[in-house]
Design goal:
about 70 residues
Length: about 70
């Protein structure tokens, strides 16, 4: 399906097209794939925002946060 033709997905088509080739996508795994890819973006946002500093203390705090998800 062309994601750009789907009103709900059109805004996210560029992002989805970046990661879709990495996977064998099926009806049964699409949800977990999307969750994984959202998590990757979320992790990058937190890193870029400086919420968790790139120190040993910051890395430990970030690890605790990720493990709590």
């Amino acid at each position: 399906e062309d994601l750009r033709q789907n009103e709900t997905m059109a805004a996210h088509a560029d992002w989805a097209e970046e990661w879709m080739p990495k996977y064998e996508i099926t009806d049964s795994n699409i949800h977990s794939i999307v969750q994984k890819e959202i998590g990757i973006v979320f992790t990058k946002v937190l890193e870029d925002a400086g919420v968790y500093k790139r120190t040993e203390e910051g890395k430990a705090a970030f690890k605790r946060f990720i493990e709590s998800l």
